[in-house]
Amino acid sequence: MTKSSEKRMDFFERYLTLWVALCIAVGIGLGYLAGDSIQIISKWEIYNVNIPVAILVWLMIYPMMLQVDFASLKEIGKSPKGVVWTVIINWAIKPFSMAFFAWIFFSQIYSAWITPELADQYIAGAILLGAAPCTAMVFVWSYLSDGDPNYTLVQVSVNDLLILVLFIPIVGLLLGITDITIPWNTLAASIIVFVVIPLVAGYLTHKIAINRKGQEWYTATFLPMFKPVSISALLITLILLFAYQGERIVAQPLDILLIAIPLIIQTYFIFALAWIGGKKIGLPYQVCAPGSMIGASNFFELAVAVAIALFGLQSGAALVTVVGVLIEVPIMLSLVRYANRNRKSFA
């Protein structure tokens, strides 16, 4: 076991799966018991971005930004394979594989349980998720799997730019809709809150701390202090997300399960494709791991907002995007664990 993995696997993190399960149970129970009361908190939003969740996600991303070596970012252009592979996975494969799995399950396998109209709604929601690659939480997954923070920043930045030009055409193609209304305020607010602000804060902190205390203190003392903050924010986020939907989960357990199955299969499929392909083209672990995480996770704020705008708050499409939010964190944590355990397989 490497020194970095020894640091990562302390008592709290060794049983992270247990803490996640407890937080999910607490969140569902809290949401069910609170009923409409919890919806007051869920409606604290700015441009469809929930403020409490945004603060918690920011606390998860900030520690990742503290590790970015801004001076070395220019060197990434000399070896662009990781960024190119990320673009291929996220834009040439993921939206179409998501549409395929959604069609297979919702229109074919589930045809005895759901109506064709509801199947179309569920497929639409899945397509919206598949066409919105992650721009925020991947910083957390990269941080927990010891990914290269510089590469992660570049990969996410490229995705942010491509969303602006590719999201509408791809969703329009797969849904057969040409008059899609994108909530640009939501898109801009998410990028500013989850990327720009923590990036600037990380840069300023990095510069000031090293000037005052030196690189050795910064690496050995300062950075480790933020790991408990990141993981604690992650667990509290889980409680909130499941609390917001607790009543709905209890009321519609079968629907939630039916929706979750193809989304889970899609997530593991895309991760496996990105992971195996990354190894085949010679990507180092620190680049392949976060690249695979980006492909597996989603920009759920954008997907939820567009689903609500196009189909309505109570639509099947909106429900699918919400289920995507609920299952993402536990699944991504399992992929982080897999990546950490298999990092030695890289040459």
Write a concise keyword list for the protein shown above.
mainly alpha, 2 strands, 347 residues
Which regions contain 5 or more consecutive residues with pLDDT less than 50? 1-9
From the alpha-carbon coordinates, what is the Rg to the nearest angstrom? 20 Å
Compute the average pLDDT.
81
- Describe the largest sheet: 2 strands, antiparallel
The count of DSSP E runs of length 2 or more, i.e. the number of strands, is 2
Tally of discrete structural domains: 1
The run of helices and strands is HHHHEEHHHHHHHHHHHHH
Approximately what portion of the residues adopt beta-strand conformation?
under 5%
Describe the structure.
It is a single chain. With 347 residues, this protein is mostly helical. It has one domain: Na+/H+ antiporter like fold (Up-down Bundle). It has 17 helices and two strands. It has helices at residues 3-8, 11-14, 16-34, 37-42, 51-65, 81-109, 116-130, 138-144, 149-175, 184-213, 215-222, 227-244, 246-251, 253-280, 285-296, 300-311, 316-341, and strands at 45-46, 49-50. Strands 1-2 form a two-stranded antiparallel ribbon. The chain is globular and about 60 Å long. Residues 1-9 have low confidence and may be disordered.
